[in-house]
Design goal:
Layout: E1 24-27, E2 29-30, E3 49-50, H1 53-69, E4 76-80, H2 89-102, E5 108-111, H3 115-119, H4 123-131, E6 137-142, H5 146-151, H6 158-170, E7 175-181, H7 189-203, E8 207-212, H8 220-226, H9 235-248, E9 255-258, E10 267-270, H10 271-288, H11 291-297
Parallel strand pairs: 1-4, 4-5, 6-7, 7-8, 8-9
Antiparallel strand pairs: 2-3, 9-10
Helix pairs in contact: 2-4, 7-9, 9-10
Bound molecules: iron/sulfur cluster.
The site of iron/sulfur cluster (SF4) has 11 residues, from loops.
């Protein structure tokens, strides 16, 4: 059941992973505690804060009412905005207990999670959250290259990310990774692809989601482009990076999801069973693509 979010009290723009399109979205916090990645414009208009409890309650009652009318219990929920996992384990536990009072058949509680927010939780905290239903966290790895992460002010390193997601795994919490094609800029496609594949192979997410870098006004990277400090990779290089990642993945069960609207060649499947046809499709695009013509005809306007 897909909820019409117009019926709910929401602060600002909604962002959620495409795979959560049919999940009930509940806003607990607004914004992102970091809010400083050079490529990101998602939460620039708001400072990180908790959503008013009366609005959270209103939305829960509305979800309860609608699911009652359609006799479809809510089993999965995605907590917004960008950084709910930054709340302490105690605060998260209290929120989850409140949510369960309205949606008692809830099974999975998903949300975005930053590496730094995992780090602040003990192994015991993570196990407790898993028992409460927290699972399928969405984590922005963004790049497998430390210098790119530093240049983009991501505030984390490759090793840090791998260490923290391994802790999640030991606590029984699955996660999905996001990587951004083209984040290394012009000339670093193949290198980025190899590093990304190595990172994914070590971190073992259940899904990797590839989206192509799109630089919107309002982020520092847009200024870098204007000032010549960052040169964007052409489409040929983007596709080469995507192909390199797919060729080098060693996880047959991994869901490879490169279906984002920002990608020119949408493919999605499991590495073990679908790699061949996905590679063929990317290679076909690679043979045909001309960077200049592509730039004029394919516009990346919004997330
Ligand atoms: S990419 Fe994620 S961590 Fe970085 S500013 Fe945007 S929402 Fe925050």
């Amino acid at each position: 059941m897909r909820f019409n979010m117009d019926n709910f009290r929401i602060e600002g723009t909604i962002y959620r992973p495409p795979v959560e399109a049919d999940t009930f979205l509940l806003q607990i916090t607004a914004g992102c505690t970091h809010n400083a990645c050079r490529f990101c414009t998602m939460y620039r208009e708001k400072d990180f804060h908790l959503i008013d409890e009366s609005d959270v309650r209103f939305n829960l009652m509305e979800a309860q009412r609608i699911s009652g009318i359609y006799k479809k219990p809510v089993k999965r929920i995605f907590l917004m905005d960008g950084d709910v996992f930054s709340l302490s384990a105690d605060k998260l536990e209290a929120k989850i207990k409140e949510i369960r009072m309205y949606l008692p058949e809830l099974e999975v509680i998903s949300m975005y999670a930053a590496v730094r927010s995992i780090k602040t939780k003990s192994d015991e905290d993570l196990r407790r959250l898993q028992e409460l239903g927290v699972n399928d966290l969405h984590i922005g790895y963004e790049s497998g290259l430390d210098d790119v992460l530093a240049a983009m002010n991501k505030g984390t390193t490759v090793e840090d990310c791998i260490t923290q997601v391994q802790r999640l795994k030991r606590a029984g919490i699955r996660h999905n990774a996001t990587m951004i094609l083209g984040l290394g800029g012009k000339g670093r496609g193949e290198e980025s692809g190899l590093a990304a594949a190595e990172m994914i192979n070590r971190a073992e997410p259940q899904m990797v989601r590839l989206m192509t870098l799109s630089i919107f006004d309002g982020c520092e990277l847009a200024e870098d482009v204007k000032n010549g400090r960052f040169e964007e990779a052409g489409e040929k290089e983007i596709l080469t990076e995507e192909k390199t990642i797919l060729e080098n993945l060693e996880l047959p069960e991994l869901h490879f999801w490169a279906n984002h609207i920002l990608n020119s060649t949408p493919v999605a499947g499991y590495v073990g069973q679908d790699r061949e046809w996905m590679l063929e499709r990317i290679e076909k695009s690679l043979e045909k693509v001309d960077d200049e013509t592509f730039k004029k005809s394919f516009k990346r306007l919004h997330l």
